[in-house]
Write a structure and sequence with these properties.
- By secondary structure, the chain is an alpha+beta fold.
- It has a single domain, classed as 2-Layer Sandwich (Muramoyl-pentapeptide Carboxypeptidase, domain 2), CATH 3.30.1380.
- The protein is built from 8 helices and 4 strands.
- Strands 1-2-4-3 form a 4-stranded antiparallel beta sheet, with helices on one face.
- A hairpin with a 3-residue loop joins strand 1 and strand 2.
- The chain starts with 17 loop residues before the first helix and ends with a strand.
- The N terminus is likely disordered.
Length: 240
């Protein structure tokens, strides 16, 4: 006898894997950071400051980005593969983030730039803390004053590119110290819009992760070092 269960899924529908879902969630969270900057600075977002014209294929996806947090990956799949949808979304999310930051900096007077950077760092930190709180409710983390317990969230919430499932290379991990090499740091981005402001963006992404870590323990200190090959994030648990 035939097992009719196997025919319930149409042959042309794309299978969505756990890896696809994680990739999609990272893109949603990356775009939420961009929206947090705009909302925190109380700015309008006319097309996310993007120019219109040939070569900007992302223009057609702006409406999709506006509803990204309310969508699921399955909502976006038609007869296109999950990978194609995710690559298209990734391009949109990162170009929008790059252009948004470029324009926020470009429209600020020199005397106000320091204040702008401080505000963006605070917004990014707050976004990271809220993300950690949300994540901890979904997957409780056993915190016993051991920094290695934070590795799953740091690996999962770093803003990776290229669908990278392991964007952080752990070069040192002890109970009181973590050293992570950023394999998909903004300085190594394939997107020109990101490389143009890589220093600023790398700093803001670091503040986002700093906020994540602070949620679990305010004694966790973090610094970012520009290495020869990769940027390095170092976490240290300050002893009382």
């Amino acid at each position: 006898m035939f097992d009719h269960q196997i025919f319930r899924q149409p042959w042309h529908l794309t299978k969505i894997t756990a890896g696809h879902e994680k990739w999609f969630q990272r893109l949603v969270e990356a775009h939420e950071l961009t929206l947090a900057w705009i909302g925190g600075l109380e700015l309008d977002r006319p097309g996310y400051f993007l120019k219109r014209g040939p070569g900007y294929e992302i223009t057609a996806d702006l409406r999709l980005l506006d509803s990204l947090a309310r969508s699921s990956l399955s909502d976006l799949i038609d007869d296109t593969s999950a990978e194609d949808i995710l690559w298209r979304l990734e391009n949109s999310v990162w170009v929008v983030q790059g252009y948004t930051l470029l324009n926020l900096i470009g429209r600020t007077t020199p005397e106000d730039k320091a204040a702008l950077h401080t505000m963006l760092e605070q917004i990014s930190w707050k976004t990271g803390r809220e993300l950690a709180e949300k994540y901890s409710k979904q997957i409780p983390i056993m915190w016993h004053e051991d920094l290695r317990a934070l590795l799953p969230i740091l690996q999962d919430k770093y803003l990776a590119e290229n669908g990278c499932m392991n964007p952080l290379l752990v070069s040192r991990a002890t109970g009181c110290e973590l050293q992570l090499e950023l394999l998909t740091c903004p300085h190594r981005s394939k997107y020109e819009e990101i490389r143009l402001i890589a220093d600023e963006l790398c700093n803001l992404h670091a503040h986002r992760l700093r906020g994540c870590a602070y949620f679990f323990d305010s004694r966790i200190l973090m610094e970012v070092v520009r290495g020869e090959r990769y940027c390095v994030q170092r976490f240290r648990l300050q002893q009382a």
